[in-house]
Amino acid sequence: MELYLAALLALMLVVIVIRIWLKRKSIYTRKGIIDPMKVSIKDIDRMEDGKEFEEYLYRLFLALGYEDAYKTVSSRDFGADLVFTDRDGERNVIQAKRYAESNPVGLSAVQEIYTSMRYYGASKSTVIASSRYTEACEILASCNGVRLIDRSELIDMIDLFKSSQHTQVMDLIEEEPELILDMDEEDSGKAKKIRLSSRKRD
């Protein structure tokens, strides 16, 4: 009887592991390549590390038609994970940050991607994160013209891509970075943040 129960328990455990594995692998094609059409924000949250997120973005960019997009060598990426040429013919560098939703991306992301531009001969830089950014990170990005794509915009990208609105996804990726200005108000003497952006939102 004990042997029977042990065998039954082992079989149940194997079935559970296989179900988890199949669910986890559902974002992959039969060839083991990530299919961007199958990826949701929940899949990104479940990714084991940043490498899988980088691979997703790479496959997404290829599917959008950025034919020259390539991933950098991880051991010597000099701060960039992905390089591509936009529709205006300008080279862009991307840093991917797969963080937990509650864990904001800090200053180092902007510092690293901005300094990688010269190495890759890029004129634009972007950080794409599965979370949000610290205020200091946003200010530094504004001062240096670094585009920040946060979780909500990443979700927009995913949804637009899945509904075959590829041009809108590319518009979102290629938007100009936000500009944050501190302006003094004479009435209160307090600094007020003004966010200026070329974003075309409805």
From TrEMBL:
<dbReference type="GO" id="GO:0015666">
    <property type="term" value="F:restriction endodeoxyribonuclease activity"/>
</dbReference>
<keyword id="KW-0255">Endonuclease</keyword>
<keyword id="KW-0540">Nuclease</keyword>
<dbReference type="Pfam" id="PF04471">
    <property type="entry name" value="Mrr_cat"/>
</dbReference>
<keyword id="KW-1133">Transmembrane helix</keyword>
<feature type="domain" description="Restriction endonuclease type IV Mrr">
    <location>
        <begin position="49"/>
        <end position="158"/>
    </location>
</feature>
<dbReference type="InterPro" id="IPR052906">
    <property type="entry name" value="Type_IV_Methyl-Rstrct_Enzyme"/>
</dbReference>
<dbReference type="GO" id="GO:0003677">
    <property type="term" value="F:DNA binding"/>
</dbReference>
<keyword id="KW-0812">Transmembrane</keyword>
<dbReference type="InterPro" id="IPR007560">
    <property type="entry name" value="Restrct_endonuc_IV_Mrr"/>
</dbReference>
<dbReference type="InterPro" id="IPR011856">
    <property type="entry name" value="tRNA_endonuc-like_dom_sf"/>
</dbReference>
<protein>
    <submittedName>
        <fullName>Restriction endonuclease</fullName>
    </submittedName>
</protein>
<feature type="transmembrane region" description="Helical">
    <location>
        <begin position="6"/>
        <end position="22"/>
    </location>
</feature>
<dbReference type="InterPro" id="IPR011335">
    <property type="entry name" value="Restrct_endonuc-II-like"/>
</dbReference>
<feature type="region of interest" description="Disordered">
    <location>
        <begin position="183"/>
        <end position="202"/>
    </location>
</feature>
<dbReference type="GO" id="GO:0009307">
    <property type="term" value="P:DNA restriction-modification system"/>
</dbReference>
<keyword id="KW-0472">Membrane</keyword>
<feature type="compositionally biased region" description="Basic residues">
    <location>
        <begin position="191"/>
        <end position="202"/>
    </location>
</feature>
<keyword id="KW-0378">Hydrolase</keyword>
